Amino acid sequence: MKMIQAIIKPFKLDDVKEALKDVGVTGMTVSEVKGFGRQKGHTEVYRGAEYEIEFIPKLQLEIAVPDEKIDSVLKAIQSSANTDKIGDGKIFVLPIEQAIRIRTGETGDEAV
User: What is the mean pLDDT, run by run of 10 residues, along the chain of 112 residues?
Assistant: First the structure.
């Protein structure tokens, strides 16, 4: 089992959610985050004054996935979050040692 962390542009959430639903993902956690990568922020003009925005608003998705679904989930996220512009985000895949559903006590893939 793996934990997929995806950092995406906020307006792509609905597209990613639909793509994940199509490949059988039944749940995810979404957090509002800020950060920067190669784009290193940007400038905005507000009431005639320029402001440097260093941390760009993004969304972080966390999805626990059984090993057999990893490839389809990664492809779904990459294709649905892609805008072909800088700042589209990143996907990280991390191992999960154990998962437990609190309500029932189920463990492993059954807990997801």
Answer: 96 97 95 84 72 85 95 98 92 96 92 84
Q: What phi-psi label fits residue 47: left (phi over 0), alpha (psi between -120 and 50 degrees) or beta?
A: left
- Tokens standing for 95? 């191992």
pTM for the structure as a whole = 0.85
What distance in Å separates the CA atoms of residue 19 and residue 69, rounded to the nearest whole number? 13
Q: Which CATH number does 2-111 carry?
A: 3.30.70.120
Q: What are the residue ranges spanned by the domains of the chain? A: 2-111
In angstroms, the CA 57 to CA 35 distance is 7
Quote the strand ranges of the chain, DSSP E: 2-8, 29-35, 42-46, 49-53, 56-65, 89-95
Query: For residue 32, what are its two tokens?
Result: 């509002």
